[in-house]
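Write out the 3D structure for:
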Amino acid sequence: VQPLTTTEPRLLGLDIENEPLWYGGGDFTYDSVVCISAKWVGDPGVVTFWLDWRKSDRQLVKLLSPLRGLIEECDALLGHNFQHDWKGVRAVFNHLQQPFLPKRHIVDTMRCIPSGMPRSLEWLCDMFDLGEKPHVAARTWIAALNRYEPWAIEKVKERNRDDVILTEKLYEREKELGWITPRVPTRRKG
């Protein structure tokens, strides 16, 4: 038997893009997730999943299998206004009748902002000079979501990837400022 050793916590950044389907009254909109990007904090690579809901559930489950693996492997999830994203990711797997995703510690860069400051990712990235949050014009959204035009899909995927990268940059800045003190449980290997 090998002794237990502590490894560094693995944070997985996640972001979704979604299409509003209909307004449910009050503050509730039912939506459909169309794109999910994931990135290990500290690693330059980003993996992006485009969900073409015209495909069969079996095809979508196969497409998302690597994402499930990443979530199962991570110690914590990182996002901005992450409650929205995490609900969307879980809803996708639930809709596809897959086993529930494991619970993970959550680090939400929006929840760490001192009161009185704007909390949007766009504003914070501008304030801290982290990069510009990409904008997608309505015409491009329509071309991607309704017409499945490859150029428009790539624009939406690019925005999704950039949001994951910008959120990680904001996370690092918040750590420098002492706004975030992650207490992420570490895994033990043995």
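The mean pLDDT is 89.
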